[in-house]
Each structure stands twice: as structure tokens, then as C-alpha cells.
Design a protein that fits this description.
Elements: H1 3-16, E1 25-27, E2 31-38, E3 44-52, E4 60-65, E5 70-73, E6 84-91, E7 98-108, E8 113-124, H2 127-133, E9 136-138, E10 141-143, E11 147-154, E12 158-167, E13 176-178, E14 184-189, E15 198-206, E16 214-223, E17 233-243, H3 251-255, E18 260-263, E19 266-272, E20 277-286, E21 292-298, E22 304-308, E23 312-313, E24 318-326, E25 333-343, E26 350-359
Parallel strand pairs: 2-8, 11-17, 19-26
Antiparallel strand pairs: 1-3, 3-6, 4-7, 5-6, 7-8, 9-10, 10-12, 12-15, 13-16, 14-15, 16-17, 18-20, 20-24, 21-23, 21-25, 22-24, 25-26
Length: 360
Amino acid sequence: MSQSVKLYLIILLCVSGFSPLWANIEWLNKHYDYGAFKEAEGPRKGSVQFVNKGDEAIFINRVRPGCGCTEANYPHDLILPGDTATISFTYNPKGRPGSFDKSIKVYVGKENELHVVKISGTVIGAPSTLEFGYPKEAGLLRLESFAVKTGELKKGSSRHLFINAYNQSSDTITPSWVGEEKGIKVELTPSSIPPGDVATFSFYVNTKEEERMGPVNYKVHVTSDRYNPGQGDCEIEIGTIIVPDTQSLSVEEIEGGPRAYLLPEFVDLGETEVAGKMTFMFDILNDGQKDLEVLRVYSADKNIEIKNKPKKIKSGKRGEVKGVIDLNQLPTGAFRIPVEVMTNDPLHPVRTANIVGLRH
């Protein structure tokens, strides 16, 4: 604060008897819109102004930008009645592609009266920035990723997943997509993306609508602009693992429920030099008191194909699982490939059989 301002404050306090004095000012503009500009152009300057409409000189105590991306300057001397004060600022777009809406707080007068100035605009990102923040390119769009996963979800639950998308073109685009199923819904907010701006794909995974258990992958085909087909497409994969929900069961239901055991847990194919495919088998034993429902048998390994599985196994009975392993695709040496068995066993809903052997 300058010496003239300090002197004015001392005189003002003595005259006013410590009574409040609100600054009478009129803003000529409190919102500065930069519009769209390229990140490569570097920091951009702007300013807003107000007029002292009162009968006394006033002053600006301080100015505080809302983030480190903005610097601000203001007059430190008294602003006389009828004079205009200019608040100038500089926005640094480096590493900040997309639209922005920031606040600058201006504190005026003896009472430290708060005024809020808004600045906004859209930064068209530089290639190096876009490659870092949105590494996946699909024509007019750049995306954070082409794949997203929920991890394990209990049957009956749901989850939202998100991927941000950036419009790297010079026109507004309206993406479209196909691939929605019972268990997956897709939204884009906003539905149309201005140049240099960002939108968010939302993927709603609802296991209540999905009949499959275990790993489930949805593929959504995205077109970057429905009104200009052929400008670039991509495929987004949404992955989830749906597991049984046993938390709602009572102690009696758990104790009196089915029990799943795999016989054997390690299916040993021995040593082989045979090319082609080999068949393997193992049993699922129900050692519980109620029927065991086999929800799914699968392997994440593409060399395993399940050919046959039981649907329901009565108490004390067994059911056979039959599968095929493609030895041609396996490297030489020892191998162990897990096969997951999902059932309605409340204690062990997932059991694992291991297909092992040695390929020469």
C-alpha cells in the first residue's frame, strides 16, 4: 500500500469517527472472455475497469486470482471521484487445454468490500500437451483412453466410469456411438463439443441387467462426428467382473447352502510333444445341502475353450466340465492356465482349476 493511501486512511478514520464507508463504484465490465485461442500463443492479457462514483477517494486493498494460472495487477494509488481504475491480468494456458472459467477477487475500500471478476475462454491445445493428456487419437477426437474397467462388481450393483474426450478440430462436433446393451448405457456431456473443448463419456454399468457372470467386456464404437462420417472412429472397451453377492444371506442360509469343490484342482496333462489341441476334464462336487448352480466356467487365456459344463448339481452329486487347450499357441516349457468356476456357493463363489503340463 502506498504512503498516500495510508495517509488517506488515517485522515478518513479521524473524520468519519470509525463509521463504515462503503465504496460507491460502478463496474464497466466484470467478465472478460478471451474466446478461443491456441496454447502455442502463450500467456494472454486482459483487463476490466470500474469507475469511482462516490464523493470520496477510494483504494484497492488487494487482488487475488483464483489459481496459479492467472496473474493480476491493479493501481496502488488513490482512485479519485470520477476516475477509472483498471484491473489487468494474464492467463497462462500452458498445459491447460479446453475451456476455463476463473475468478479474481478484488477487495476495495476501508471496509475491504469484495468484488468478483470472472475470466473465461477456451484453449486450443498444443500437440505436445494433447499427446500427454489425451494420448488416444480418433480423427477429430482425442481421448484419455480407449479402455476402462470397474474391477469386481457384486451382482445387483452398478458403477459409473468416465473418459474425457477433446475436440481437436476447428468446428463444433457431435459424436455418436453404437454398442449399448442391457448392462451398459452411454452418455456424453455435453452432447456437442465446441472446438478446443472437452466433453465426458459416461459409461453406466448395471449388473442387474446383465445375465453373464465373471469377466464381461462391452465394446462401444464411437464416431467422432455424426454429421461428418469418415472423420475418424474408435472402439472403447468397458470391462467388469461380476461376482455373486452373498452379503445379504443369513447365517442359516450360508450354512445350509451349496458347497463347491473341484476334483482335481490341478489337471495335469503331463509332458507332451503333440501339436494341436488336447481335451481336459475335471468335476465339480456339491458337498452342500442345496442345489449348486454353476453360473459360469471360463478362462481369461485365449488358448482355453470350455466345451461343456453342468448347469445345476444336486447335493452330494458331481458335474463334469470339459474343455480344450490349444497347444500350438503355447510356448515350450511348463505351463499353468487357470480356469475359473463361478457358482452360488455363498462361501466360495469362485473356485479355480489349474490346467498344468510341460510342452517340449
